[in-house]
Amino acid sequence: SAELCLLPALAALLPPLSGPGGPGPAEVGLGALPAELRAAVRALVGDLDALFTAMGLREESFAVGALSRIVAAELASYAPARNRRRTATNKASVVFVDRTLDLAGAVGHHGDNLAEKILSVLPKLPGHKTDVMVNMVELTALQSTDKVCNIIAPGCLAQPNDPAARALWESFMNLKQKEAVMEARRHLVEAASRENLPIKMSMGEVTPEQLSSYIKLFRNNLKALENHCGLLQLVLATVQTLKHPQTSKWDNFLAFERLLLQ
């Protein structure tokens, strides 16, 4: 999205957990890390430098955590980065935070965010760290009860060529779930109206069944399917997430967490 850039190639990069008798955080330098982790840190520094070069940034780095300090120090002394900082025109502050300092966050069920639920509940797209498989059977005449029907290629969340889908994904990330689901219905109704499909707009709460009934209007219209394929994939992801048994478990966990906090 406009505010969030993920680096999936480095998804496995985690700070080492220091055991008893191991070096203290202040003593660890790049040379003290295992060879594989050293290579990953250098790859991260190279990727960040390429990203900052593309953005014309001159960064000031801050670090929270032992590995973050190493990454920040490596970036500061990296020769191409030094050259870039001399000529770059835009200033930025960069904060590195060790992922192990927020392990509780990674297992929390924080809130009311549809994007977070979709990414947690639907199966991962093969070969990807940050995208999911969306079952597309509903858009076909195929009658299959197989949950992982692999005859039809899966859809996904990344829809860079569909402006409506991109706007809807921003809503999923930035709005509360109820508002995001209403946005999904609004986009679907607008798309159906443009294609002159016989859609009956209903007010009130949006249900997954209602969204499914709207999606089925596109099924026998190849031109409409082609025009709105990206949007339909995101709405199908919404329907499948809302119907998923893990979603009700999520809501239960969230209620328990709120009670514990109180």
Shape: elongated
- Beta fraction: 5-15%
Task: Let me know the largest β-sheet.
Answer: 2 strands, parallel
Order of helices and strands: HEHHEHHHHHHHH
Number of domains: 2
Question: What is the radius of gyration?
Answer: 23 Å
Q: Give me the secondary-structure category.
A: mainly alpha
Number of helices, where a helix is a run of at least 4 consecutive DSSP H or I residues? 11
Low-confidence spans: none
Total DSSP E strands: 2
Task: Explain the overall architecture.
- Helix 1 packs across helix 2 and helix 6 runs antiparallel to helix 7.
- It contains eleven helices and two strands, in the order H-E-H-H-E-H-H-H-H-H-H-H-H.
- Strands 1-2 form a two-stranded parallel sheet.
- It starts with 34 loop residues before the first helix and ends with a helix.
- The mean pLDDT is 87.
- The chain is mainly alpha-helical.
- It folds into two domains: 30-101, no CATH class; 114-261, no CATH class.
Provide key terms for this protein:
mainly alpha, 262 residues, 11 helices, 2 strands, 2 domains, two-stranded parallel sheet, 50% helix
Furnish the topology, listing elements before pairings.
Layout: H1 35-55, E1 57-64, H2 66-77, H3 79-87, E2 90-97, H4 103-106, H5 114-121, H6 163-174, H7 177-194, H8 208-216, H9 222-227, H10 229-243, H11 245-261
Parallel strand pairs: 1-2
